[in-house]
## 1
Amino acid sequence: MDWKNHMKKGFLLLLFLLITMIPFLKQEEPLFVKASEDITAAEMDEDAPLDEKLSAILANEHLEGTVTGVSIKRADTGELLYQQNGDIRLHPASNMKLLTAAAALETLGKDYQFATEILTDGKRRGKVLHGNLYLKGKGDPTLLQTDFVQFAKDLKKQGIRKIKGDLIGDDTWYDDVRLSQDLNWSDEPFYTGAQVSALTLSPNEDYDAGTVIVEATAKDTAKGKAEIRVTPETDYITIKNNTKMVDAGEPRDISIEREHGSNTIVVEGTMPVEGAASRSWVSVWEPTGYALDVFKKSLKAQGISFIGNSKDTFAATPADAQLLTSKQSMPLKDLLIPFMKLSNNGHGEVLTKEMGKVINDEGSWDEGLQVIGDVITDFGVDEDTILLRDGSGMSHKNMIPANDLAELLYNVQDEDWFAAYKESLPVAGEAERLVGGTLRYRMTSEPAKGNVTAKTGSLTGVSTLSGYVTTKDGKPLIFSIMVNNYVGSSATIRGVEDQLATTLATHEFTEE
C-alpha cells in the first residue's frame, strides 16, 4: 500500500505548488475594470503612447466595477490600435441606431420616401363623395397636422364637400404590434417609448410620432388651476387637470403622465404665478385613431362633412380603391438628421419595420431585425457575437462588442451613402440643435469641438459613444466606447467618454 501513500503525497505537493504559483501566472485583462491610483490621465505626458494615455483614463475610479469596452481603429487602414474588452458583448443603448441607420441606407436607399395616401372606393357626384374615404398610412413618422390640412384642401379643390360613407384608417402596412418586445412599462407613457403604427402623427418637427405635447402654463392669479394646452388639438385625448395655482415664488411641481391603457393624461401639482411653463411629450395609446381624429378635424375645418350613418373605423383599403391625393415624406438621408442627432427612438422602430416590409413583405420587428442582421454581417459584424431586439436601442437585451461596432463604422466608409450617414451623427460642441444634437453641450472646446462626430447612447447603467475623430496630426480614427453596469452619475461617465475622445483628438502619432 506504500505506493498509494506516495501518490497521495505527490498529488498534495503538486496541488500546493499550483496554488502558490497562481499569483505569478500571466492573466488576461480583467473583465471588470478595477480603479488604480498608480496612474492618472493628469500624470500622463502628452507625448506618451496612445495606449498609455487611454489606459490611464480607463483607470478612473468611477469605472470600478463596470464592464467597459473600448475599440480604437485607424479609419484609413482599419488597423486596430487599442482595445479593452473589445470582444465582450455589451449593451449599446442608442448606439444600436448606428446599425439601424446603416441597414436602412443600404436596403432602402438614401433617397427612399415614405408615402401616405387618401383613397376612396366610391364615386363623386356633384359635391358628394358616395363611398368610404381611406387614410392609408405607410409608416411616415414625419406627418404633421399641416399635412392633414393639405389633404383636406386637396379634396376640397376636387369639389368634395360631403362624404356619404365612413372615414377609415388603414394601418395594415405594418403589423399591429405596437411596442417592441423589451420596452419597459415605465417608458411606455412617454415619447421615448411611443407606440409604432403605419398610420401616425407627430406634434412638431422633432417628429416624435405617436405623441402629443401637453403644456401647463401659469395664470396671473394664485387661484384655480393652471391652463393646459395640447398640441395638436385632438378629441382623442382626455385631460385631467388636477393642478393648483400658488403664489409667485413657491415651487413649481408639475407632473404630466398618461394612464396606462388609455388616452387619459393626468396633469397634477402646483404652478406658481409667473412660473415657467411645464411641457411634456406624451405617447398616445393606439396612434392610428389619433391620426384619424386629427384628419377628420382638418376635413371639418375645410368645410367637408360626413353625412348619413357614417362612422370612424379601421380596415384595409380595397385593392381597386381610387387614389385622391397623397404625400411623400422627406428622403431618408434627411430623416436621418432628427433620427440620429436627436436620437429619435420612434424612427429606429419605424425603419426596422419598414425594412421588414420592403425586403420581406412583412412590416414586423422580427422581419426588420432579420434584415438589419443580414446587412451588418456584410459590414464585418460577426452574427454569432450579436443579439438584436429592437431598432432604437431601448432594449436592455441588445448586445454587440465594441470591436464589431468599430468594424462596422470602418466598412461603411466605402458606401456611396456614407456622407449622409456621417452627416447624421451629432457633432461635438456645435450649438445648433440639428448639428450638435445630443453632443451640442459636450466637448465644447477645440480640438474635440467640431471634430468628434459620434452617436451617443444612454440607458440605466449604460453609456456609449461611437464614431469618428481626427488626431492632431491629421490621422482619421474610429472609436467605440461602451460602458455597462455603472452606478452613480451618468454625467461622470460621459465625462470619461469625452476625455477618451478628446485624447484621440489631441494625440500625435509622429513619434510612435
## 2
Amino acid sequence: MALLNPCSVTGRGSNTGVECGKTLGVPAGIIMVPANAKWSLADMQDFAAYIQTKIHAAASQRWYPVFTDLKNFEVTQDSDTQENFADGTNKMIRLGGYTLTFSFLEGGECLAKSLLSFNKKGYRFIVVDVDSQFKVRKNGDGSYSGLRVTDLYAPSPNLNTLAASYMNRIIASISVDEYIEKAEIFLNDTDLTELNGLLEVELSSVAAPTATKLTISAKTECAGTDLYDEYADALAVVDAWKVTDSTGADVAITAVAKNDTLKAWELTGAFTGTIKVSLVAPSVLQATPISVDGFESETLSITL
C-alpha cells in the first residue's frame, strides 16, 4: 500500500476488440440476497444446488427467489448529467442510472405481503433471464455478490381492474457502473427459474393439550394446503419437531405418532406451563432422513 500523487495518475480505457456479444436476455425474475452475502466461482459451478442451500439457510443468511410468472420488465434510464459552459461546450459529470421494474402476474396478495416485508431492509439482487443466464457483482477480492442498489423495494401492487390484471412489482434503482462495469454474466446449465422460495407453515393445536401429549396439525399459511396429505410419515419423527419452555430451553420429545383422524401429529413428552412448538429449521427438514423440502413453520404457543 502507498500514497499516490493524484496529478501523476493517468487513466486509460479498455481494449475494444470484440469476441462475444454477451448480454443478459429478457429477465425471468430475481433472487434477493443479503447485502453481506459473498460466494466464490467454485460455488457457481453448481449454482442451483448452492442457491438451494441458501434458500433453506437461517433467516439472516437466506436467499429469496422470485420467479412467479414475470409478465413485464421495464427499464427507465435517467438523463446523463452534463455541465454546460459559456463557450457552448459540455462536460459529462455522471451517467444516468437505471430504474428496473419487474412485474409478476402470479402470487397475489400472499406474495405482496412477503415482498413488502423486504422494503428498507438493504437487500441486493441477482437478475436471472429466461435462458438461466444470471448477472452478479464481481468484487475486488475475486468473490461475487448481489448487485448493489441505491434502492430495492416492492411498491404497492397494481390491483385488478376491468382492463388490467393484478400485478406484484419489484423496483430496483442501480447505477450504470454497478449494472454494467462491475457486473458479470454467467450461464447456468440448470434452469434457475424453477427455484422456489420457502412456504410459510401455520401450526395448530387440534386437540386439548395435556402434560404428556400435544396434537399438532400443519398447513401452508397462504393456500391452507395440509402437509399431512404428503408428509404424514416424514414428519412422524422426533427430529422433525422442536419444543421449548418459557425460558427457551429445549423440552425433550420422546415420541411422535400420526393421528389420521385429525390429520395431525401427536408429540409425547413432559410439558408444563407455556411452551412453544415448531418444526425444526428448514435446513434440517430438507436434509436426510426427514427430506421435507421448502417449508418454514411459525412458532405455536401453548399454555397448559
## 3
Amino acid sequence: MIGCTLSFRTEPPRFQETTVHHSPLIVGLCGNPAPASKTLTLTTEVTAALADLFAGAATEVIDLSTHAERVLVWGDEAVAASRDLLRSADLLVVATPVYKGAYTGLLKAFLDGFDLGELANVLAVPVTVAASPAHALAGPTHLEPVLREIGCLVPGGTLHVPDKIARDADARSVLVAEWISVRTPMLATAGRELVR
C-alpha cells in the first residue's frame, strides 16, 4: 500500500497564535447601492454580532452606496482606501441584496478591484437579502465563488435573510444570533484562538 500526505496550505493559517500580533479586525461591506438600506443595517448587526465572538475585535463598516459613482473610476482614493481596509481585515461580512438572482453590480465592480487570491486566508461571511425564497441560493451559487476566487475562506456558508425578516428588528436579531451560534465551531476551527 502506498501512503501519501496531501497538503493544501502553502503558508500558516492566518489565525495561528504564532502569527497574530494584533487585535482582529472585522470589516462589514454593504453592497446595496441605496443609502441607509436595510442591507446596511443588517451588515452592521452581523459585524457587531461576530465581534462578540472575537477577543478584542475592532469593527469597521463600508457602505458602498457612498462610492457608487466612483467605484469604476481608476485610482479613486476613497475606493482604494476601502479596498485597503478589506486587505487588512481578518474577517469580512459581505452583504448584498439579491438583484435578478445575483449580487449587485456595485458589489461586483468593487470586488473586481482585487486580484486572484489577494485576500488569501481572510475569513468571509456572505450575507444575502431577498424577497423571494427562490433567491436563497444566490449566495452559495454567485457570491461565495467570487469571494473564494479572491482568496477568502468561507467556512460557514451564506447567511440568507428573507426581506420580511430583514425589516423586522427582533426577527432579524434572532436569525442572526441563531446562524452565528450554529457556525461558531466552524469559525473557531478557522480562527482558533480569536474565538472566545
## 4
Amino acid sequence: MSGGQKQRVAIARTLATDPELILLDEPTSALDPTMVGEVQAVIRDLAGTGKTMMIVTHEMNFARSICNRVFYMDQGIILEDGTPEQVFSHPLNEQTRRFVRKLKVLELLIESREYDFAGAGTAIDLYCLRSNIPPRIKYRIHLVFEELVQQILLPVLDRTAIHAAMEYSEDQETATITFAYGGERFDPTAGENDLARTVLTRSVNEFTYNYTGDEELSNTVCAVIRP
C-alpha cells in the first residue's frame, strides 16, 4: 500500500474503537506530496462528523482551514493560542508572527561607534545567502543599513545602542529592516543628511518612524526594501 493508503487505514482502525478524542501526529509529514491531499480529505470528512481531533502539524493552510482552535508551540512551550483567524492573521507573539509568515530573520546589535562594521556586513551577506535573497534586494539591504546606521544615527546619538532586525519573506520576496534605539526623540526621516536620505528613499518602498517615550528603545524606524 502507498503511504497515503496506510494513513487512511490507520485512521479507519482508530475509528473502529469509537474514541472520544483522536490524536493525529504529523499525519502528512512523511507522505509523498501527491498523497497529502488524499489524507487531508479524509481528515476534513472526519471533522465534519463532529469528532474531536488534536492535530500536530506544520501544514499551516490545512490547520487554518480545518481547526477551530490553534495552539502554537516552540520548544515544548505554548506561545500562543486562539482562533485560526487570530493566530494566523493577527498573531500577538513575535515568534508566532515570524513562524506563520515564514520569515527569515537576522538581528544585529550595535553597542558603540567602534562596532565591527565589516563583521556586520559579513553577517548580512551570510543571512542573504541562506535566505535565498535576490542580489538586488541584498544590495539595498546593505545600502539602508550603512546609510542609516553609519551616516545618520551613529553621528548624532548620545546612547549608541542600536538594535537592527531584518526580516525576509521568500513567498512574497519582501524584506523589512527595523531599527530601534533609545534616547530622546530623533526622526531620521527628517534629518539634515540630505545625501543619506536620498539614498534611503531610492532603496525603500516605505520608511516610517515611531516614538514611544516610555520604552528603553523608544525610537523605531521601519524600512520596507524596494524589490
